[in-house]
Specification:
314 residues; alpha/beta; Rossmann fold; two-stranded antiparallel sheet; 44% helix
């Protein structure tokens, strides 16, 4: 009897997952149709708001698939961003764009079909209570990453994501046509969103666009043709990042004419292997426990800072 219940439960769960996957593009299509236009709010900028002198460097940070709203980052991500600001005080750093919605609309926003569920999960997180429900957020956002990587829906999703980033940049004082450099740092699924949005940002703002991928699950997105450089960091123990290299066949060396492989031949994709790092958690890219002299968080900060310095950041 118990085994039958277990089988039925697993079957229902699989059906639910398939239905959720099938419905994932609907948010993108509804945004494209204009149904969510009144719901979209431009993210408030974080940086030198009100400063009359424009920065030469604007950095947008896109969180991983555990993100529920651009206003809330994991503590280890917050510490990374805080240290990055200290390292580059003249840069404008924006860290509150929600990347897993074409409208940039956080899961906590209303009206959403399951906004009460996301608020409940957020409440549990703030109370420090870890439950299996947390996986629903990851799963939902993973499906949106798949939409971003899809050849049919991806360009629509990416236009929306670019609009959310453009709005945040405008609030931070960015002027289109100024030529100020834009660097998008994407963690996990955020890297795929960053690459997908790159051609639209570049066309609208007339700016050089660089992407720094931290454990990014990346497809061979047409957007790689628009980025000036793509620096991809992957931990040697990161099995999640490896999924992208296997799952998206156009990244295979066999397909030499894919966007990814062409960009590699052009010298615009730099792959950096980082030792002793997993995808997430205390041993992940932003892990805080000291491992020897420094934490993974500090090591990742140094690696990203080296790239930014190479791009001319002061």
């Amino acid at each position: 009897m118990i085994s039958e219940i277990l089988v039925v439960s697993i079957g229902l769960a699989l059906v639910a997952l398939l239905i959720t996957a099938a419905l994932s593009p609907l948010e993108t299509l509804s945004w494209w149709a204009g149904w969510t236009e009144q719901e979209m709010e431009a993210p408030a900028a974080v940086g030198k708001i009100g400063d009359t002198s424009e920065s030469a460097l604007y950095i947008i940070y896109l969180s991983g698939v555990a993100s529920i709203s651009g206003k809330y980052l994991l503590r280890r991500e917050e510490m990374f961003i805080r240290a990055l600001r200290a390292r580059f005080p003249d840069a404008v750093i924006i860290d509150n764009v929600f990347p897993y919605s074409p409208a940039g609309m956080p899961l906590l926003a209303s009206p959403r079909l399951f906004d009460r569920l996301w608020r409940w999960i957020q409440k549990l997180d703030l109370q420090g209570r870890r439950t299996l429900l947390r996986g629903l957020t990851n799963l939902r956002n993973i499906y949106q990453v798949m939409v971003s990587a899809d050849h049919r829906y991806g360009p629509i999703f990416s236009q929306g994501a670019a609009s959310a980033m453009e709005a945040a940049l405008g609030n931070a004082g960015y002027r289109a046509g100024s030529g100020a450099r834009i660097v998008v740092i994407g963690y996990s699924g955020g890297a795929q969103v960053a690459v997908g949005a790159a051609p639209f940002l570049k066309a609208r703002l007339g700016a050089p666009i660089d992407v720094i991928s931290i454990g990014g699950v990346l497809a061979s997105d047409p957007g790689v043709a628009a980025v000036d450089t793509l620096h991809h960091f992957h931990g040697d123990g990161d099995r999640i990042e490896k999924l992208g290299a296997v799952m998206f066949a156009e990244r295979w060396k066999l397909l030499a004419n894919s966007h990814w492989n062409k960009a590699k031949r052009d010298g615009r994709i730099y792959v950096h292997r980082v030792a002793n790092m997993l995808h997430a958690g205390p041993k992940g890219y932003f892990g805080l426990p000291k491992r020897g002299a420094r934490s993974n968080n500090e090591r990742m900060l140094d690696a990203v800072a080296d790239v930014l310095s190479g791009l001319g950041a002061q």
